[in-house]
Amino acid sequence: MNPEIQTYNERQTTADNEICDLLAKTIDSVLKKAESKIWHAHPVWFLDGNPIVGYSKQKKGIRLMFWSGADFEEKNLNIRGEKIKDASIFYNSLSEIKTKDLKRWLKKSKEIQWDYKNIVKRKGKLEKI
């Protein structure tokens, strides 16, 4: 696990730390070629410079967000952004995480991507990769 991400996880409450550790370890195991780092103050994984998945502590719990998740056609990724193609799920306990679902979403995150890396260059226009 990236040491910065481990530090982020350790700063959470015990319950949230368990959630974050499981998410990070699962993401690392499925997205083996991804670069991970703290980006905009929370853990994010990138493929070829394009943000794919990340998580953050919010009032509603730990938010797991897929940048292109709106196109995954997954009913449990039901928190959708208004301006970008993201989709999220919130976790408040370790028992809520269904690793089978998580691994399926991570596999989809490699196959279904919008090009966020070049969004500024394209003046806010997203294109599918």
Q: What top-tier CATH class fits best?
A: Alpha Beta
What is the distance, rounded to the nearest whole angstrom, between the alpha carbons of the first and last residues? 27 Å
Sheet bearing the most strands, described? Answer: 6 strands, antiparallel
Structural class: alpha+beta
Number of domains: 1
Share in helix: 25-40%
Note the main attributes of this structure.
single chain, Aspartate Aminotransferase, domain 1, 3 helices, alpha+beta, globular, 129 residues
How are the elements arranged and paired?
Elements: H1 3-10, H2 14-30, E1 35-39, E2 42-47, E3 50-58, E4 61-66, E5 79-80, E6 87-91, H3 99-111
Antiparallel strand pairs: 1-2, 2-3, 3-4, 4-6, 5-6
Description:
With 129 residues, the chain is an alpha+beta fold. The chain has one domain: Alpha-Beta Complex (Aspartate Aminotransferase, domain 1), CATH 3.90.1150.200. The chain is built from three helices and six strands, in the order ααββββββα. The chain has a six-stranded antiparallel sheet with strand order 1-2-3-4-6-5, with helices on one face. It is globular. The chain starts with a helix and ends in an 18-residue tail after the last helix. The model has no long low-confidence stretch (mean pLDDT 92).
Summarize the structure.
The protein is 29% helix and 26% strand. The protein is an alpha+beta fold. It has a single domain (3-111), classed as Aspartate Aminotransferase, domain 1, CATH 3.90.1150.
